[in-house]
From TrEMBL:
Annotated Gene3D superfamilies: TolB, C-terminal domain
Highest taxon in the source lineage: Bacteria
The name this protein goes by in its record: NHL repeat containing protein
Length: 524
């Protein structure tokens, strides 16, 4: 955690103060032995990296290091391995290059395509299809986009105009399905329905950013009163759900559906993306990664609610789900386990909830449904769609399914947990979550346990334990390569920064050249 002294606050910092007022130093020295499930106790120390634990008979090695914001790996038709460097994080303010590197057998990396000035970062997802890379990113207006990139550097945007990406959540993983269509995960705008204080840097750059829906929905007309940080930051303003910051809503107001909605899996023909794009499933918060098992069943890993300013939801889990075409997965009115967020157990302290209104009438400071479910034709999601529930804020990311060569683990879903953003995601968090690789059965046996597979001996990123590069940091992508090995893209180290808030930036500082690619193989 940062040990900076709190800087003087301007309008932006003052507006965000509610999300950072408690818990700033709660994680210092809070390293505990990991005991999430019985498998944690069965893991053994790696011979190569002693602080890393994994099952006996497997070993981990580092095959690339010194990377800046790596997010994805992919292989071409000849089996060459490539890694994407994002070019930035939330708002591309870090001055890093967006590029694709080839990873050599000896761990060297060679730039093959530089995308600076040709796309707006960050690159989150990358896949290889019919002789080219396909990547997810933003455009210059911060809309979410998908582009085709050839090895000789030709860039063609095939899909754009995803409005939700004008926020902290953009398009993420994308993969080709066995049906010949491309599937892309798209995050929702904001945390839990509103463009609130945490969206300040994004609203200032793109005032029309907002959450969207896959179909027409009817609103309850819930508005929250927030500091108006625009034009000098004076006074307050009412902000409603599914609309831009500073826009109030009314009961019964209809939000039109969009074929490019956020919080979704979008599907399209990569040869005619704009004409064919449509939602495959929706109602996720931050949809990060997808994978199919041998039965061609689709699974998705989702980052759940933050207990943060605006509409704080004190959830207990992040979710990995079975994907049913056409299904709604409950955001923003149901928790990760599909319980209603209006349940008392999800309510934070009333002081964390801003003044709340239905239309212009003041109502109780509590969590209200934002959507009129009956009028919108929506029902509480079916719990049979839950594959596994991770610890809240563990941030399950881009998963993959193990091949037959992995024996007892074949056809299981391996999910990287990026980890929490400390007091940004939950000011009351008193220990780390995530920073590990987990596995979940996909056989349909009803066993929804999230098992540990690769993790540090103690909770938290290796850098927080003074051992950057010696253990797992921020795993974001897991892919099984043509050689049958597991490849882990480790984003690198970061820390919270009060100074960035005062400067009007998202309050996370990311370290350049701290990213890695790991490989896990069977050794016996």
């Amino acid at each position: 955690m940062s040990t900076e002294e709190e800087p003087k606050r301007g309008p932006i910092a003052s507006a965000m103060a509610g999300s950072v007022s408690v818990g700033i130093n709660m994680l210092s020295e809070k390293f505990t032995e990991l005991t999430h499930d019985a498998d944690s106790k069965k893991l053994t120390a790696s011979a190569n990296f002693p602080m890393v634990r994994l099952p006996e008979g497997y070993e981990i090695e580092k095959i690339a290091a010194g990377l800046t914001y790596p997010t994805s790996v992919a292989w071409d038709d000849q089996g060459n391995l490539y890694v994407a460097e994002a070019g930035g994080t939330f708002l591309a303010e870090e001055g890093a290059s967006a590029r694709i590197l080839r990873v050599g057998a000896n761990g060297t990396t060679t730039e093959v395509v530089n995308l600076d000035g040709r796309i707006y970062p960050a690159i989150s997802g990358m896949t290889w299809h019919e002789g080219a890379f396909y990547i997810t990113h933003r455009d210059q207006e911060l809309n979410g986009a998908v582009s085709r990139v050839t090895l000789n550097g030709e860039v063609t945007q095939i899909l754009g105009g995803i409005v939700d990406s004008k926020s902290d959540h953009q398009p993420n993983d994308l993969r080709m399905g066995r049906d010949g269509r491309m599937y892309v995960c798209v995050g929702i705008a904001g945390n839990s329905g509103f463009m609130d204080e945490n969206m300040i840097p994004f609203v200032l750059k793109a005032p029309d950013g907002r959450p969207t829906a896959a179909q027409d929905i009817v609103l309850k007309g819930v508005n929250i009163e927030l500091p108006d940080f625009r034009e000098g930051g004076k006074g307050t303003v009412l902000t409603g759900a599914f609309v831009p910051f500073g826009t109030a809503t009314e009961p019964g107001q209809v939000i039109k559906g969009s074929n490019k909605c956020g919080g979704s899996i979008l599907v399209f023909d990569p040869n005619n993306a704009e004409a064919t794009v449509r939602p495959y499933a929706w109602g996720f918060r931050n949809a990060i990664g997808i994978a199919w098992n041998q039965k061609n069943e689709l699974f998705i890993a989702v980052n759940g609610y933050d207990n943060a300013a605006g509409r704080p939801i004190n959830d207990y889990h992040d979710g990995t789900y079975r994907v049913k075409e056409g299904a709604w997965y409950g955001w923003p009115d149901f928790a990760a386990n599909f319980s209603p967020v209006t349940d008392a157990k999800f309510k934070p302290s009333s002081s964390a909830i801003p003044p709340t209104y239905i239309g212009t009438k003041r109502v109780a400071k509590e969590l209200h449904f934002l959507i009129d479910h009956e009028a919108s034709g929506l029902q509480q999601p079916d719990t049979s769609l839950i594959l596994g529930l991770h610890e809240v804020n563990s941030s399950p990311s881009k998963p993959d399914v193990a091949p037959e060569s992995w024996g007892a683990y074949a056809d299981q879903l391996f999910v990287p947990e990026y980890g929490d953003f400390q007091w940004i995601t939950n000011p009351l968090r008193d220990k780390f979550s995530g920073s590990r690789i987990t596995r979940i059965e996909t056989s349909g046996s009803g066993e929804n346990t999230v098992h540990a597979f690769v993790q540090n001996e103690k909770s938290g990123p290796a850098s927080q334990q003074g051992q950057l590069g010696e253990g797992i940091e921020r795993p974001y992508d897991v892919k099984f390569g043509p050689d049958g090995a597991m490849y882990i893209v480790d984003f690198g180290s970061n820390r919270t920064s009060l100074k960035r808030i005062a400067d009007g930036h998202f309050p996370i500082e990311f370290d350049k050249e701290s990213g890695m690619v790991w490989r896990v193989t069977k050794v016996k």
